[in-house]
Amino acid sequence: MIGTALFFLFAGFAIACAVSMVYQKNPLYSAVSLVGVFVALSCIYVTLAAPFIAVVQILIYAGAIMVLVIFVIMLLNLDEDKPLTRLRYLYAVGGGLGLILLVQTMFIFYAVLRAPKDPVDTSQTAGKSLSIGQAMYTEYLLPVEIVGIMLLMAIIGGVILVRRLEPGQLKLVVDSELDKRHEEEEKDDYRIAF
Amino acid sequence: MEPSLATYLALSGILFTIGAVGVIYKRNAIGMFMCIELMLNAVNLTFIAFSRYYADTTGQLFVFMVMSVAAAEAAVGLGIIISFFRNRISVDVDDASILKN
Description:
heterodimer
């Protein structure tokens, strides 16, 4: 009983935060709402006997990824989203597509009829860091190594993407971009950014 | 009594749908990025729920992999957003129109 109550509490919190994330115009408020979703999901993971993943969720998502996102939002000094002037019909199209997707995902109620109704008693093995670690370094060693290489590639790619251009190249880019801007104010904005 | 497997999957489906609709609605590149993170999290929830109901640790292991992919995506995606901002002074995806003409 208490499990059900906790689930619906955290599920409601997660859905409310997710809706708020899409609704907010200010990217910083969106980011904070997303942190709320992560925390709620982490609590649900604890009730699903996955304490290790719950801690990793907080550490990696709320601790690392969202800090990076908020850092970029503050670095770029983003304004609120401008109101949508053209393509207004996309709101209706997006809502319709979302409704179809929701109906499709609700087919799981039909699909999981054969699935186990009650969770197996896993208090002995599943979810402990020991069994995850054992599986990670024996049976699934190759995927773990691939993930390691992928992270290395991401580090190198990230560094290369954001490096400063050489002064000569930079001048070419700035001049060509300044030519395209008509308003004096826009040009000033562009100069300040460098 | 605990909620059934279908309840967890329904929550996951709702979160995934909110994320997908958010990707359509947001024009801010960082907003779209955060919606994608939300969709990844919805999928993680199904992994954990199946791992619990079938008593198999593999699901949790693959949640770990998905988190690594999300971290790599954050590094590269934010790098792309920063270099786009340097060139256009905006993170609005409508401004990424250099190939249009």
